[in-house]
Design goal:
The structure is a homodimer of 199-residue chains. Chain A has 199 residues and is mainly alpha-helical. Chain A contains nine helices and no strands. The first copy, chain A, is elongated and about 60 Å long. Chain A starts with 10 loop residues before the first helix and ends with a helix. At the A-B interface, α6, α7 and α9 of A face α6, α7 and α9 of B. The structure holds a DNA duplex (30 and 30 nucleotides).
Chain lengths: 199, 199
DNA sequence: ACACTATCTTGACACTGTCAAGATTTTGAC
DNA sequence: GTCAAAATCTTGACAGTGTCAAGATAGTGT
């Protein structure tokens, strides 16, 4: 239950929102508790009423990011409910889109910035839920004969890993120019999925 | 050319080494210029004679990591010079091993900690070289009929991405327990490679 | 009405990256 | 070899950071 109207009125969400904005404008390096507090118009240690420490704020921002990602994934999946192959392709694409449009949020979600994720149940829960969605799509593809019938979870890790890896390497600038000049990221994703697809 | 014998005697490498050690013991959060300087036995701003700023030190540590990774990859490749399939498998495995034994170094190499990698030519060069090695192995596999004959670079991005993605998700704790209980990371890698391999 | 708790402010501390000024040592030109 | 120039290192300072303690303020439940 979020607080109703204290001195500030739902400061917690304001801080998260301020954090997201600073993150997208200045990157992780520019994200500080004091700056977040200032942007929300409160004193430098007001955040401690809502977040145990800096890590807790980052956990909250990451959790928010996962909710957004989950929503995007779910939308793509629902939009192609009758075509598992399209679910896989557009689901993957929405994953890529999210990463590219929320670069720094994506990074804190998946780059070890958060050190003890197990201490944040909301974070664990939403990321578990997200993986569950991937497994569902993979399973639908297997039932439809689009993907081979191996362990759905192993297949999910394999495919999710592939999408995730390509996006990560691209964001990191690790994909050489020779490749990026000739192929778009979408090309790479389609190619990757084709690799796993049946004939 | 590294310096020979000044006040300290090759302080630059000592700082990098100290950085690597602190990184592996305290993680990225514990890595500070001042701590590195102290560990090398010099004053708090001695590092500025060798590194423009904190980012430059991180770049140097990352570069060192890439050299180590490249060496490991190369060893695996040379050891199976007569069997491209084994080159791919053991090369991938050495990649995984490196990541798991040098977790924090791996993270700073691939997790956007380094913000303007283009400003560090040595870093760019060694990572380019590493990708080149991957392409070579993939091409050998294609010539041997182990992998399909698509664009080698696209195939390389796809396979490298897959290995990289699985490792990243595993390190991040994003692979659910239900999966990790039943399969080792090696299982996942082998499965992933089998996906791309021909029949 | 009143104790209680959540929320927020003020002030402090140690630690950080970075810069400027100066001291010291090595190098290179002569 | 001499000596100016450059590289290396120290000392001291500054602003910004996360975090804690003590107190002020405002809603809560009885």
């Amino acid at each position: 239950m979020p607080s109703k109207k204290y001195h500030h009125g739902d400061l917690k969400n304001s801080l998260i929102q301020a954090g997201v904005e600073i993150l997208s404008k200045e990157g992780l390096g520019g994200l500080s508790l004091r700056k977040v507090a200032a942007r929300a118009g409160v004193s430098h240690s007001a955040p401690y009423a809502h977040f145990k420490d800096r890590q807790a704020l980052i956990a909250a921002i990451s959790t928010e990011g996962f909710k957004k990602l989950y929503t995007a994934l779910e939308a793509a999946v629902l939009q192609h409910a009758d075509d598992p192959r399209q679910q896989l392709i557009e689901g993957a694409w929405s994953y890529v889109q999210f990463a590219m449009h929320n670069i720094d949020t994506f990074k804190i979600m998946f780059s070890g910035t958060l050190e003890k994720e197990k201490e944040y149940p909301a974070f664990v829960e939403i990321s578990r839920k997200t993986f569950g969605l991937v497994v569902d799509v993979v399973q639908a593809c297997q039932n439809a004969g689009v993907l081979r019938s191996a362990s759905p979870e192993l297949m999910s890790v394999s495919i999710w890993g592939q999408i995730h890896g390509i996006v990560s390497l691209a964001l990191e600038g690790q994909i050489s120019h020779g490749v990026l000049d000739r192929y778009s990221v979408r090309d790479m994703i389609l190619f990757a999925i084709d690799q796993s697809a049946i004939g």
